[in-house]
Amino acid sequence: MRELELYFGPQHLGMVGNFSITLKVEGDRIIKASANPGYLHRGFEKLMEQRTWIQNFPLVCRINVVEPDHMELIYSMGVEKLAGIEVPKKGKYIRSIYCEMARVASHLFGAWAYANMLGFDTVANWAMYHRDLLLDMFEELTGARVYHIYIRPGGVRRDFPDGFTDRLVKTLHKIGGKVPDYNALFFENRLFKERAEGIGVVTREEAIRMGAVGHTIKAIGMEYDIRKIEPYAAYDQVDFNIPTRTGGDAYSRLLAIRDDMIESVHMIFKLIDKMPTNGEVCTKTPNPFKWKVPAGEAYVRCESSRGELGLYMVSNGGDKPYRVHFNTPSYNHGLTVLEKALEGESIADVGNIMISLYVVPPEIDR
Amino acid sequence: MNKTNFLNPFKAIKYLFEKPKTLRYPFETKEIADRYRGFHKNDWDKCTGCGNCADICPNKAIIMVKIDELIAKPEEGMKDERPQLDYGRCCFCGLCVDICPPGSLSLTKDFFHIHFDTDTFKFIPKDEKNNKEIFKSEDDYSIFNASLSHRKENYGGFSPDIRYALFEPDRIEMPEIEPDERKLSFIEQVIGYDKDQAREEAGRCLECKLCEEACPAHLKISDYIDAIYREEPKESLEKIFEDNPIPSICGRICMAHCEDACSLHIRGDSLAIRWIKRYAADTIKNFKEELEIHPGKPTGKKIGIIGAGPSGLSLAYFLRLQGHEVVVYDELTGGGGAIRIGPPAYRLPLEAIDKDVNYIKSLGVEFNFNTKVGRDVKFEDIFKSNDAVFIGIGNTISFSTRVPNSDKCIFALDFLKDNKIGEMRKVDKNVIVIGGGNVAMDVARETTRLQHIQYPGQEVVTKTVSLEDWDELPATDLEIKEAKEEGIKFNPAWGPKEVVLDDKGNISGLLCKKVKSVFDEDGKFSPTFYEEKEKFLEGGMIIEAIGQRPDFSFLPDELNKKLEFTERRKVKVDENGMTTIPKIFAGGDIVNINLDAVTAIADAKIAAEGINKYFNKNQ
Fold first, then answer.
1. How many other CB atoms are there within 10 angstroms of residue B567's CB atom?
2. Which of A139, A156, A191, A193 is the best residue to mutate to test the B interface, defined by the most B CB atoms within 10 Å of its own CB?
3. Residue B525, CB-side half-sphere exposure with 13 Å CA sphere
4. The 3-state secondary structure of B502-555, one letter per residue
């Protein structure tokens, strides 16, 4: 049969985000896929070199549209490591709770994208609605729904409002109560299972070689989670599991995401129980107009909802970062793992596999 | 996969009977969170126009714009600018709110603006107090009209909170000698910052430069503070010397108008600008050797300066740097003028004064101390032998209360002068000080120290009597607080009626009458009393500290007649500092109404420029 070259995206219904894949196909089988990023390059890393340490934290969240919170966290952690700032205990708990909220919201968004992509519109609408309930909580806590700009070097910007944790628990119970319905309509739905099972398999060796992280390797049975390996914020204060699966295919990955979400909700309850009621939430940082961070370099990492997120930052002792570089999970997943996983699959499953790998193009183009 | 599994999705049918979750916007609206970060509002009554919001804005969405109505009505400590937002650039991060020192800027729950004209997205925020037209009440507000010019009142969102502010509101506490210890001697009360404290305090400066506008001499404050922050005290001191050649003195006794204007002062403690200046001056041990400041090329012009007070010293320095020859005359044994005799040693030791004076001397200024013009040298000679003459003689004659037997009282200036540069006065165990100004506080606090030195372990009392009530006392709050700490008793709103003598003709006390009001309706000083309400204060010594006036007796009669005065009995000078007599310039306490050192320096700056202009014109 004749080989064809096919452009999948950026203007394609099955494509999520501004991203494109060039496919070499024979019939509807993919022989070779090559990822084609760059449509969303906004030069954040370069821009950050021109902004002061405090001016950067409203900027970093924009790197990942779906989940801005871990970007704020990783930037703050980097600055804190360079400047030797210790976050107060309560601030750490708030950071953890906030990041777990972000994880749940992000996974719900992922569920929307996946369900929407495969035509499960009812589930997609539910997921969007439930994410919206969490956005209400974010709005109450931070004053914004998407770009929260909440974690700043030294801690967080404001304490929890009165009664916030009660309302958060109520909201999470409301969402959690719908899990059986989600299972019935989506996760354990035969239609979905047949679409996703055995698709886009990534083997253990490939995953390790290509630097896959997050639920992509959790779906192969690897318990790899930065929250456990190198605990930050208040993750060393609570006990939690790392849900894993064994299939390594799109279906296992999605179930790993679901289990991760449920585990996050349980973790928020535990964190709220243990959180100190009094105390500072933020360490005073120096005057923003005079703040110079000591020269040095730092690498920090955290577990975002997509997997290990790293930040390499260099200071030359000035009032601005000398160099900032993000190591984002979508970069590995979208450029190397995706190309490998698409080989031999059908054209109809491109979007399916891409979303199951949880690729968020803005993370690739920084 | 079994059959039930296949039928599972039909469970969702139950949701058909639920109410829709979607809101029918705009008929159904949602409650917006209390911290919502929407459009700005700005309380113009609190906003100082400091521009910190514009400086921190990461997107440069804020610029400061001149406001006509503020230019027309200038207010002290406020700039005539207000922030303007460009909502095409704003990212609603709220950094501007967290940095705002007065806490005037906040965000609201408004977020609607639709317009064909992009210029309408540039917006100068005000609040419902200052702009009633834009902010509508609940009844008048309609979401269909919502825009930047149709907003809901009391719709506040993300607001400033001092606990989470990006600046540090608390001052580094200045180490001081405790009241119980300091009242026993003339030891300098303020110990001074060390290197780390000075650096940390300097680090609080937001560089808004409100202070520089408030300072009469317009010192480049944010520059020299920043140099201290960078641990460059030499650079800092050189910056100070550009506008103020007596930093050791001003670093101790400046009235610090800058600190009143400091934007941190509104919700926290103002920056300790004076103490940082003092740190800079004290850290550099030898000005002559360490500073790179040199007199200019000789010009051949000669200036005579009468009075080595702050204005005279400063003028001598400024003119000397330009290469002029400068001769200074003063009747005291050293430089400093009123500063030498006025501020007690616990606040301004003579060494600090001499450090500044000796430096100015080392630059080639000729000082003639112990030389009273009119007695030791004739004014006419000075006038003839110099190309210009500057009079900075200050107020040297004390006013008297002129109540019966007031001739038995002591004048404040004589008392202070003897204690500082002469022989310590012998004081009584029970002393009354008449006056409520800073000089009265100095006298009272000095008296307390002398009493403790002369009557160790015995009970001693110092009281003050002032016409002004607590809220009107002209002394600074800090002085009053420190005086109280040292055990001084206050009798505000009492006026002297008669000095009471005992059989031997010695003072036994002061009879006082209650004050009805101090000022008349026009705000002029014109005290009235309840003559029948009397109070007797016991005391063996009374010191009058109720004000001073200048002594122009050294001027020849024909010049004295030509010298004109303002309504407030100040020497009239033009914009160049020249009096109504050509070639004679004036400055300091005889010209300005602030009666402090830094205003005298400002006068000297004006006169230095004026004298140069005068020379250029008459070449």
1. 6
2. A139
3. 7
4. CCCCCEEEEEEEEEEEEECCCCCEEEEEEEEEEEEEECCEEEECCCEECCCCCC
> Would you identify the CATH topology of the domain B302-396+550-617?
FAD/NAD(P)-binding domain (3.50.50)
Cβ B510 vs Cβ B466: under 8 Å: no
The residue to which tokens 């103020």 are assigned: B244
pTM: 0.85
Question: What is the C-alpha separation between B266 and B268, in angstroms, rounded?
Answer: 6
Containing domain of residue A218, as a range?
A: 3-364
Q: Is B257 exposed, middle or buried (0-12, 13-18, 19+ CB in 10 A)?
A: buried
Check CB contact of B16 with chain A, cutoff 8 Å: no
- Residue A96, phi then psi, degrees to nearest 5: -65, -45
CA-to-CA separations, A121 to A115, A117, A127, A180, B544, in angstroms, rounded:
6, 9, 10, 17, 92
Entry field: residues in chain A? 366
Cβ count within 10 A of residue B417: 18
Domains in chain B: boundaries = 40-164, 179-290, 302-396+550-617, 399-547
Taking the C-alpha atoms of residue B151 and residue B463, their distance in angstroms, rounded to an integer, is 59
- Provide the pLDDT for residue B5: 65
Of A129, A149, A181, the CB nearest to B11: A181
- A287–B5 C-beta distance less than 8 A: no
Do B1 and A58 lie within an 8 Å CB cutoff?
A: no
B40-164: which CATH topology? Alpha-Beta Plaits (3.30.70)
Question: CB–CB of A55 and B229 under 8 A?
Answer: no
Beta bridge partners of B534: B513
Q: Which residues in chain B are contacts of A189 at CB distance < 8 A?
A: 5, 8-9
HSE at residue B368, side-chain half, CA atoms within 13 A, is: 13
Select from B94, B157, B166 the Cβ nearest to the Cβ of A288.
Answer: B166
In degrees and rounded to multiples of 5, residue B276 shows phi and psi of -70, -35
Say if residues B338 and B548 touch (Cβ distance below 8 Å). no
Cis peptide before B169 (omega within 30 of 0): no
Give pLDDT tens digits for B527-543: 888 888 888 888 888 88
What percent of chain B shows pLDDT beyond 90? Answer: 16
Which of B216, B63, B257 has its CA nearest to residue B600? B216
Confidence band (pLDDT; 50, 70, 90) for B1? very low
pLDDT digits (tens, 9 = 90+) for B143-196: 888 888 888 888 888 999 888 888 888 898 888 888 888 777 778 888 888 889
B318 contact partners, CB below 8 Å, separation of at least 6: B245, B604, B605, B608
Q: What is the number of domains present in chain A?
A: 1
From B32, B207, B5, B21, select the one nearest B108 (Cα to Cα).
Answer: B32
Per-residue pLDDT tens for A232-286? 988 998 999 999 988 888 899 999 999 999 999 999 999 999 999 888 898 888 8
Beta strand A151-152 pairing with A29-36 = unpaired
B179-290: CATH superfamily: Alpha-helical ferredoxin (1.10.1060.10)
Distance CA B423, CA B216 (A): 35
C-alpha–C-alpha distance, residues A348 and A12, integer Å: 12
Tokens of B244: 């103020």
Residues in chain B: 619
- What's the distance, CA B20 to chain centroid? 64
Per-residue pLDDT for B134 more than 60?
yes
Please check whether the two domains, B40-164 and B179-290, share a CATH topology. Answer: no
Are A21 and A338 in contact, with CB atoms under 8 Å apart? Answer: yes
ipTM reported for the complex, 2 dp: 0.87
In angstroms, rounded to a whole number, what is the distance separating the alpha carbons of residues B614 and B84?
44
